[in-house]
Amino acid sequence: MQESKISILGAFVQMRPKFGENSENIERAVKLASKVRADLYVFPELCNSGYAFTSKEEARQFSESLETGPSVQVLQSFSEKRKCALVAGLTEKSGESIFNSAVIIDNGRILGTYRKTHLFYREKLWFEPGDSGFKVFDLERYGCKIGPIICFDWFFPEASREVAVKGADVICHPSNLVLPGKAQIGMMVRAFENRVFVITANRVGIENRSKEDNFHFTGKSQIISPTMEKLASAKANESIAKVARLNLDLSRNKKVTSMNDVFEDRRLEFYKAQYHELLNRELTNS
Ligand code: ACM
Fold it and tell me: Which residues fall within 8 angstroms of residue 12, CB to CB, at 6 or more apart?
């Protein structure tokens, strides 16, 4: 393989947020990130507030505007000082609605947000289902496109495929994973089948805030290459940031063999069952 003309340094930040301590959590997140030099940092899901809410009211209490909230301001200032891009999972307040979201920032400027599409388990009691759809953000000065998905979105291969087809070089995957080891394997496959890089930034620790909940977050954040190599990884229980160089010629090359291209070889005419399902739902609802 030739040396890449375009490459960026990508990093995950694996941390242990304290429930409800938004400002302390974000300060600790950027302090950890500051220990490595990268062009693009990915922070965990809900890294401002922690995860295990007991009600929608409590989620509202610890949510913030993703335009002007204090956590976003700290992240913008980090991004501006470091001249870097970042994707961070945050509890978002938008009017009366609370979302499990990610903010995308480059050089201090907010490029946009993504709202988690597939809510996991009791998140359905706390958040609105994401309404943003899947988006790709162009980090123009790096010549790199990134596609955010959040945690349980990994379970739906359509999510990763959608951002890959839209041109993402890197899937940025803020997470609070609780099924040991499963997503790490799944996201290796997502990287390989879409020929993209994946940065999964998971959290560690335990949140046991009600009798229904005993969330044990599984760490093992990782950076995976389009050829399924593990470029960096963390242990199950450490707070750490790690970095890897991402050579983007790998994510631009969709060839598996000289005769196979993962996108061009798709047979869309045989993948219609889901679209019929969607049309039927729309007809039923109209
Ligand atoms: C998850 O989606 N936080 C498991």
Answer: 41, 42, 199, 200, 201, 202, 221, 222, 223, 232, 234, 241, 242
Asked if residue 210 is part of any domain, the answer here is yes
Query: Does 120 sit in the ligand 1 pocket, CB within 6 Å?
Result: yes
Q: Domain range holding 157?
A: 7-285
Query: Which CATH number goes with the domain that contains 214?
Result: 3.60.110.10
The answer to whether residue 268 sits within a structural domain is yes
Q: How many domains does the chain have?
A: 1
Pocket of ligand 1 contains residue 183 by CB under 6 Å: no
Nearest CA to ligand 1 atom 2: 152
For the segment 161-203, what is each residue's pLDDT rounded down to a tens digit?
Answer: 999 999 999 999 999 999 888 999 999 999 999 999 999 999 9
d(CA 250, CA 122): 38
